[in-house]
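A sample copied in:

***
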Amino acid sequence: MEKSIIYNRFKGCLYGQAVGDALGLGTEGMTDEDMAWKYPHGLQHYSQIFQDRHRKRWKIGDWTDDTDMMLCIAHAVIENKGVNFTNIARYFKAWAEGEPMGIGENTYKVLNIADYVEKPFVVSRMVWEMSRYQSAANGGVMRTSVVGLFPNHVKECAENICKLTHYDPRCIGSCVIVSNLIHALVYGSQVQNYQEMIDTAMEYDERIADYIELAWNETDITKLMNDDHMGYTLVTLSVALWAYWHASSFEDGLLAVVNAGGDADTNAAVACAILGAKFGFKSIPQEYVEDLIYRDQLDDAVEGLWHICNMRQDKQHKGTGQTGLVFRLFYQVANGLNLIARHTGLAYNEINVLAYYLFMPLTWAVLLDIGLKLPLATPILIIAWLSIWITKKKHFESWCDKVFDKSVQFLLFFKRIGWVYELSSVIICVVLPLLMYVALIVNIIC
């Protein structure tokens, strides 16, 4: 696909989110009766937004927390020239310590715990557990559009960036489905059909499938709204997919979602990010673009991300010689681990930790003991892992998240000597382990 087409969709996604967020603020939290009184002919323009106590906190043409947090992710990625979950958490925390207007209850609880930045996954899971595993707000899916623009590892990144604040599998599945859809639309890869989307949903929580089915079958968007579940991640997902499947244009989808009420700013932010990726930036009516009062921030994010994502995509697809081999090997290993995760039901982070901290060291220990003719290393490692399992089994996934995050930070350290993340991953996680196997086998033979 031509880069001009990709760029049009790339920019359309981020602008679509901001436009949906800014106009959706006008009907956020409103019932049908509220909208009939305040917008008898429907809301179509920023200038129409009713200035009540809630809405007058924002200037006309401003967006809310949905796009604020999406930009936190964008700025962290631009700063690191790649994805660093700890740095994204740091940006979230800094935003929460400023004036986070519209911040959701779950996000507020997570980000206001003192040691959040040091162990974001642990804190996020703890808050979810404190809700008795009930909290499944749309604060994760509202910001995931930018993840769909990443040139690779979209599923893994969507899962982990969601879990920085929202740990429920319904939230995680929502983020993966939206991010995958945006990625396919922008880069021209195969878009999941209805059944494939259902299959993805079932990997996380079967309740997601019901809302996908509703979006597919229902022609009236108002039938998707539920005042008792306003702010629920699956309602937002359902509305966004409805817009993708049923809207004939960007503006058609925007106005349908906004005038359906409910959690309209978030619903429209997610729906219009998808529509922007589908129809492109040029499909967005200019009044919505030009009247965004902070569009310069959006332009900076678009250009910064485009440079990074375009550069990485070029490396992925055009690499030659040793560099191309490194990138191909990196993606093959990652895809293999993802495949194992999908078939075992374990999270990607769990598979990583088990592979690199249990399976590989255990096989090394066995080979070492064979070479030394002394069963010493293997029993020690087994005892060590048994103690880890006994102490961590109730929170094993969150422990794996923490270990995985520390591993990523370690690999990113090598950027100081000019190694990109993929190169350091291949050398540390593939080349060195293979050399270890060779050395141990040679020791046995000799």
Remarks:
- The chain has a mean pLDDT of 90.
- The first helix runs from residue 3 to 24.
- The chain is about 65% helix and 0% strand.
